[in-house]
Specification:
Blueprint: H1 2-18, E1 33-35, E2 40-52, E3 56-60, E4 65-70, E5 76-81, H2 82-88, E6 102-109, E7 112-126, E8 129-138, E9 144-156, E10 178-182, E11 188-192
Parallel strand pairs: 5-11
Antiparallel strand pairs: 1-10, 2-3, 2-4, 2-9, 3-8, 4-5, 6-7, 6-9, 7-8, 10-11
Length: 196
């Protein structure tokens, strides 16, 4: 629940600028760019509406930008093109195809927030329509709804060596796992090497 609340806060702050736009390029000044540090990340995808038959989830009007945030060791934000997120799904040592992620789905049904937990598999993106195969873990997803948000966990950043994970890597030098730059208040905003 802590991560859901944190995710909702991040989304509320950033979604107004993310809808209908592509990923903003990083600043040109290399002095502000640093390699992406080790972290575990949650991803957020939002859409205008959805439909589900209990085995698939189809999101319509999915945002072109998939948002990211971390909780530790340093709180960071990030972004990736949704097209690149889907392309990367089955690549890397610890990809989602090998280890399907869980996701909390937040929707609005009859003007009330509805939360369901599912396992996500086999994403397909056509235009602004994103479809996942799903396995229900907690709750029952209504057949249709609006204002859908997916909070997808966890993906481990470069150099992260948790109990079972090795983290992604393999991008071009000098930022093999990705790169980050500091905002005016010192916070890091990051982008994986595969994100654009």
């Amino acid at each position: 629940m802590k991560f859901l609340i944190l995710g909702l806060a991040v989304m509320a702050i950033t979604i107004g600028g993310a809808r209908g736009q592509g990923v903003t390029p990083p600043p040109a000044a290399d002095s502000n760019v640093v390699p992406m540090p080790a972290a575990n990340w949650l991803f957020v995808q939002v859409g205008d509406s959805y439909a589900s038959d209990g085995k698939t989830l189809t999101i319509r009007g999915v945002a072109p930008q998939t948002l990211m945030f971390s909780d530790r060791p340093e709180r960071m934000t990030g972004d990736a093109l949704t097209t690149k997120f889907i392309e990367f799904w089955g690549k890397g040592r610890d990809d989602f195809e090998k280890d399907p992620p869980n996701a909390t789905i937040s929707t609005v049904i009859d003007d009330k927030t509805d939360l369901v937990v599912v396992e996500l598999l086999n994403p397909r993106l056509t235009g602004d329509t994103l479809t996942y195969d799903i396995k229900a873990l907690q709750g029952q997803l209504p057949a249709t709804g609006k204002q859908i948000s997916l909070f997808i966990d966890w993906w481990y950043g470069p150099g992260w060596h948790g109990r079972w994970r090795g983290g992604w890597g393999g991008g071009p030098p000098p930022y093999r796992g990705g790169r980050c730059w500091r905002g005016p208040y010192g916070a890091l905003h990051c982008r994986p090497y595969w994100a654009n």
